[in-house]
Design goal:
This protein is an alpha+beta fold. The chain has 6 helices and 6 strands. It is elongated, with a radius of gyration of 62 Å.
Length: 263
């Protein structure tokens, strides 16, 4: 018996059991027509941060950046000189209170319309107020301290002196009522003759006439050990101003009331 010849298999060896035939995979579907996928340009992926390829760019108006230096402000024109304020200040310094106050008020009203000088007007008003205050203090001082002050040449016989001056040069004395407490009483006013200044000897001669005059004015005072003598007489300077009087004053170490004549 003959064996038939073996022919080679056209399909090669059969695949092992359970394995599919080794056919190549079918081709995939064709790419769709049209533009490439959104956001990708032909040939690859755009770099990170690049604008989308298919998205149109939006237009815009460029704005200039901030200026490195601030813009200068336009200054207002200088205010006109307020002469009312100037006058108020000047008269405030000089003590012209009425003029200073009136001009100061007018100047302040004008500053509301843009005029300058408000500070000068206020200064003038303040100075005027200080002058008024100083005047008030002077009047009060005169009424309290200087009440009854009389020029030494103008005292008369019978005037009572509140306090005997302790100065060798006396221009005024305080005259009070003899019913008030006092330390001196004028008992004689002697008048020297006209002419040139007579000198110290003539002055002393008139001073010596005071004691006899006291004996006539108040005899009891001559016997009182508490009674003293104070004389006002002219100097060469006061003589040139017309002073011709020698004033005799009876003094007391302790204040007293009433006139020496009634004792």
């Amino acid at each position: 018996m003959t064996t038939p010849p073996e022919y080679p298999s056209q399909h090669g060896d059969p695949a092992p059991y359970g394995a599919p035939p080794a056919y190549p995979p079918p081709p995939g579907p064709p790419p769709p027509y049209g533009p490439p996928p959104y956001g990708a340009a032909y040939g690859g992926q755009p770099p990170y941060g690049a604008p989308y390829g298919g998205q149109p760019q939006y237009g815009g108006q460029p704005y200039p950046g901030p200026s490195p230096y601030p813009q200068p402000y336009l200054s207002a024109p200088p205010a006109k000189t307020n002469w009312w304020a100037v006058v108020s200040l000047v008269f405030g310094v000089l003590g012209g209170v009425l003029v200073s106050v009136v001009c100061g008020i007018v100047a302040l009203n004008k500053t509301k319309n843009g005029a300058s000088g408000r500070g000068m007007a206020i200064a003038g008003l303040v100075l005027s107020g200080l002058w008024v205050l100083l005047l008030a203090v002077g009047i009060a001082f005169y009424l309290i301290v200087g009440k009854g002050q009389v020029d030494a040449m103008d005292v008369a016989e019978g005037d009572c002196i509140g306090a005997i001056p302790d100065s060798s040069l006396v221009s005024s004395v305080q005259v009070v009522s003899c019913e008030e407490s006092h330390t001196g009483e004028v008992f004689a006013v002697l008048t020297m003759p006209e002419g040139d200044f007579p000198g110290q000897d003539a002055i002393e001669d008139y001073q010596g006439r005071c004691e006899p005059a006291l004996a006539v004015y108040a005899p009891a005072a001559m016997l009182d050990p508490d009674t003293g003598l104070f004389v006002l007489y002219p100097t060469a300077e006061s003589w040139g101003r017309g002073d011709r009087t020698v004033t005799c004053i009876a003094t007391s170490e302790t204040p007293r009331t009433g006139s020496l004549r009634t004792r």
